[in-house]
Amino acid sequence: DSRDSISELQEWRPVVYRKCTDTLWLLLFCLFWAGLMFISGYAVVAGAAERLVLGYDSFGNICGRKNTPVEGANLSGLDMTNKKYVFFLNSCGLEIQSLKISSLSLCVSSCPQEQLNSLEDLQSFARNNGSFLCIYNLNVSNYTLNPKAAQLCPTLPVPPSKSFPLFNRCVPQNPECYSKYASVLISMVNEMDVFHRILSGILAGRDTVIGLSVLALAFSLMLVLAFRFIQTLVIHTLIALLVFGLLFISGVLWWLHYDYRNDPSTELETEKENVKFLLGYAIFSTIVTVVLLFLIFVLRKRLQFAVQLFCIVGKIIGRIPFLLFQPLWTFLILIVFWVFWVAVLLSLGTAG
């Protein structure tokens, strides 16, 4: 009897003698959130994220709104309510000096839709569209008369441009200067052409990506249901599919790399970069395959524990089916958090 009572006490002890654990880490987590809220509040008060979103000129005026004068800055404090776009006077020759764009920028009411080749064209564009592309204190009638007009007006010829979505910058439509402008506009990345190709590829295949995502979701639900009835078969089938799938992918990547490398028609720089990418993917896939095969071989005797674990998971999901929606809530919460994170980051970046 005494042994039975002792065993019962030991069995129920975790339930009876509950207490708070990891108090130190909970305190550190609370301090982390307090610091996060402090930094967020400071960023909102001291930052000016609208300068990045709306854009601003070289004199401290934010485009698209009425501004207050900045002490010591000439031509600041102007009303730019009707001038929502940022225009760079040397749009095809943007350079970065001390993390700032060297070219002067102005707030304009519209971007030039056609190429402007002379000061007369600038004057005609200003009179017809009400968009002045020269320095604010230069009167439109003096565009062709002022001897310093060449320094106060944009570099000629002015390429046709179009407002960039969201950021309201006048982006030149000339292919020769587009890549340089894009590299400055988006995070000042040197390899913007590679990023642009990757992004274009993703957008071009968005229907395929969405379809594969829906298919993956359907297979996941089918696997969850299958785990409740045929756990052992499903686990061994998944392991076999994983092994053969990785071997097949590695083989295909090595074959494509060998085929492209020995193809005499591979002359373009883009095709040569594709060969390098294929080599990198093939090496990475081979390493992952070897590591997983080694782990499966070493842990082959522990597969029964995985079967038992999935049996328990299947019973839990059967009793609490709403657990299937947990990844969806986590995904939505993470989206909200990362939007908040980016907003704070932009505010900090413009807090001076």
Q: How many H/I helical runs?
A: 12
Beta fraction of the residues? 5-15%
* Number of E-state strands: 6
- Widest β-sheet, arrangement of strands: 1-4
Count of the domains: 2
Structural shape: extended
GO molecular function: transmembrane transporter activity
Keywords: Membrane, Transmembrane, Transmembrane helix
Subcellular location: Cell membrane; Membrane
GO cellular component, one term: plasma membrane
Structure, briefly:
The protein is mostly helical and 352 residues long. The chain contains twelve helices and six strands. Helix 2 (23-46) crosses helix 12 (326-349) and helix 9 runs antiparallel to helix 10 (269-298).
Structure write-up:
The protein is mainly α and 352 residues long. It has 2 domains: 53-191, no CATH class; 206-319, no CATH class. Helix content is 59%, strand content 5%. The strands form 3 sheets. It has a two-stranded antiparallel ribbon with strand order 1-4. It is extended. The relative contact order is 0.08.
